[in-house]
């Protein structure tokens, strides 16, 4: 009995701390994807650099095994704007696989591409790839690592400026003899690190360097030498591109080869910022701690200047950007000097990122609302995304009788940057002309439009800031509930979709989330005026509560809406059930089947 009580207590404690899922965004238009939310703590819009955040949240650093439980996709490459609004999720494209070092690159034909490391698969069937995507999010290069170099390491996939080659880190288990330790007949396995330079067209290995150490990062300078950062020796090395010999050491066990005014430890992401003759400017992340030890109390992004032409050689710290919450980043992380000289830093755990002015002012800090996810590296880049897939649209209708039917349309366009607004159309049938039923500004990753009445064969256009049509959705049927179950009490057994052109003419109206009512036909008859007033109130209310977000807002909106409707329509027994049903693939119509021509009338 006693043990039973203890057990019960324990069970209750476990139950009392459940995982919630409101730390993830969800979308009507992309039901299979969830995206981490950002909690933005600091944002000085006037001084942050232009650009989007490039992040790749992961749950565990090693791939998770397969599960037969249904699970929405959550990890992989993502792009956000600086308000934390999702721009692109690649989680479905990369099947929830872990992705690392996701960034934008300008190494090919003057266009911006995306590069990343696709981690090896859990079942071992794939050994990982260096991926390069174009601005349509299509695969441009998929580069395997030569078999004898093991799996594609997650630390670095660095496409060189000319686009011809890329630097990758390599981890290998090598069997070595213990002869030099006085045991000539014994052998052991040693985990060794190194790097390889691979051809970005053929994946051929151009250069390959090994050490008996563990190497997180590398990059080369103009002289063709390689900068190596070893976190377990707290040292940066310059390795000759000619013979692989170590030319100098910065920091480390014996203090290195420099007269230096700073120390660092467990560093990550060392990069040449400038390199000319004997002077090098190097940025890196000084995390000052690892899982076991800590040497300082605060991690920092550092920029240091190294002079190799003097005797002794000198190393001076130029800038140091402390972690804003004054905590330690014990693993991973990176720093990026932005074109305007701001410093962008990823402190890794919990997706913590920050941006700093060159003077060291904190301009932005944000982290995932979810403590469950982390992010190895984050970057900020300007980018134009033009997906080939059309915008995703979902339309559904509800109501309790003919007087209060409402069609709700959800729209998103995964990866499209610069969308300003959406135009919506409905048709009387598959063969009728699309009729413009209204427009909304893009409000987030996903936008919503509501039309009074029951419209079907719905489609939308994405419009840019200059009014150009950027893309058109497929035509979707409006989903409807089981009318009996939601308490339908209209004249007919069940409602039928209305002809949107006749509809507009009669002034029954559609409403816009813009309060100017610009999409209404101008007639001064009283019913229309009343209708406009009502829908305008509704639109204003919708605007006001939109920022609250989520289901709560929707419920509130429904409550307000029923009040308004009751005031000018004869309402009997308003009973609304919110429902969503996503059409299975075969219910969707292809553009070839359904040419969509916007009607300007
Ligand atoms: C940002 O810039 C705008 C326009 O230059 C200015 O009106 C505003 O006061 C600035 N805000 C801050 C916080 O500096
Ligand atoms: C890239 O742009 C520059 C300047 O606009 C131009 O001179 C060059 O030919 C372009 N290169 C390619 C490959 O399009
Ligand atoms: C909707 O379209 C009208 C007419 O083209 C335009 O004046 C208005 O700005 C648009 N509204 C939005 C939110 O795009
Ligand atoms: C192991 C090691 O080098 N730790 C150093 C970390 O960095 C701080 C200063 O940046 C030094 O005080 C530690 O000795």
Automatic annotation (TrEMBL):
It holds the Pfam family Arylsulfotran_2. It comes from the Eukaryota. Residues 1-16 form the signal peptide. The chain crosses the membrane at residues 548-571. The keyword Hydrolase does not apply. Keywords: Membrane, Signal, Transmembrane, Transmembrane helix. PANTHER family: ASST-DOMAIN-CONTAINING PROTEIN, PQQ ENZYME REPEAT PROTEIN-RELATED. This is ASST-domain-containing protein. It comes from Penicillium atrosanguineum.
């Amino acid at each position: 009995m006693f043990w039973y009580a203890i057990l019960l207590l324990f069970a209750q404690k476990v139950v009392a701390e459940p995982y919630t899922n409101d730390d993830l965004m969800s979308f009507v238009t992309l039901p299979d994807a969830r995206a981490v939310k950002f909690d933005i703590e600091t944002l000085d819009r006037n001084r942050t650099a232009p650009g989007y955040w490039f992040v790749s949240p992961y749950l565990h650093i090693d791939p998770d095994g397969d599960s037969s439980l249904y699970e929405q996709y959550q990890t992989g490459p993502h792009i956000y704007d600086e308000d934390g609004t999702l721009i692109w999720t690649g989680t479905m494209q990369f099947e929830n696989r872990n992705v690392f070092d996701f960034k934008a690159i300008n190494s090919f034909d003057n266009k911006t591409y995306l590069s990343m490391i696709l981690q090896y698969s859990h079942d071992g069937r794939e050994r990982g790839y260096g991926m390069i995507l174009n601005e349509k999010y299509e695969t441009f290069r998929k580069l395997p690592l030569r078999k004898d170099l093991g799996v594609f390491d997650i630390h670095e996939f660095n496409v060189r400026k000319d686009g011809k080659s890329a630097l990758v880190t390599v981890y290998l288990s090598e069997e070595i003899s213990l002869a030099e330790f006085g045991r000539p007949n014994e052998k052991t396995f040693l985990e060794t690190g190194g790097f390889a330079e691979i051809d970005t067209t053929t994946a051929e290995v151009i250069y390959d360097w090994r050490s008996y150490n563990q190497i997180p990062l590398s990059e080369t300078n103009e002289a063709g030498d390689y900068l190596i950062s070893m976190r377990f020796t707290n040292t940066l090395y310059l390795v000759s591109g000619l013979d692989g010999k170590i030319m100098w050491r910065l920091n480390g066990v014996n203090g290195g080869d420099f007269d230096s005014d700073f120390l660092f430890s467990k560093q990550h992401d060392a990069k040449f910022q400038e390199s000319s003759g004997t002077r090098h400017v190097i940025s890196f992340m000084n995390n000052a701690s690892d899982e076991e030890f800590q040497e300082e109390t605060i991690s920092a992004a550092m920029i240091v200047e190294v002079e190799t032409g003097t005797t002794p050689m000198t190393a001076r710290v130029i800038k140091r950007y402390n972690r804003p919450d004054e905590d330690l980043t014990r693993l991973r992380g990176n720093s990026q000097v932005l074109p305007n000289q701001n410093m962008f830093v990823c402190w890794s755990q919990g997706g913590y990122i920050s941006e700093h002015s060159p003077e060291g002012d904190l301009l932005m800090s944000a982290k995932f609302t979810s403590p469950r996810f982390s992010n190895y590296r984050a970057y900020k880049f300007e980018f134009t995304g033009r997906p080939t897939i059309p915008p995703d649209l979902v339309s559904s209708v509800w109501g309790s009788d003919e007087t209060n039917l409402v069609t709700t349309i959800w729209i998103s366009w995964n990866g499209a940057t610069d969308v300003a607004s959406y135009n919506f159309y409905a048709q009387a049938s598959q063969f009728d002309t699309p009729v413009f039923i209204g427009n909304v500004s893009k409000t987030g990753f996903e936008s919503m439009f509501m039309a009074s009445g029951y419209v079907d064969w719905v489609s939308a256009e994405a419009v840019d800031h200059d009014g150009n049509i950027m893309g058109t959705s497929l035509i979707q049927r409006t989903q409807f509930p089981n009318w009996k179950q939601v308490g339908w009490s209209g004249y007919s057994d069940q409602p039928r979709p209305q002809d949107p052109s006749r509809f507009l003419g009669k002034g029954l109206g559609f409403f816009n989330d813009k309060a100017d009512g610009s999409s209404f036909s101008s007639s001064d008859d009283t019913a229309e005026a009343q209708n406009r007033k009502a829908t305008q109130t509704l639109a204003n209310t919708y605007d006001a509560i939109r920022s609250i977000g989520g289901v709560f807002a929707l419920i509130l909106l429904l409550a307000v809406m029923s009040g308004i409707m009751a005031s000018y329509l004869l309402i009997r027994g308003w009973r609304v059930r919110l429902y969503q049903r996503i059409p299975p693939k075969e219910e969707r119509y292809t553009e070839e089947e359904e040419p969509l021509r916007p009607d300007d009338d």
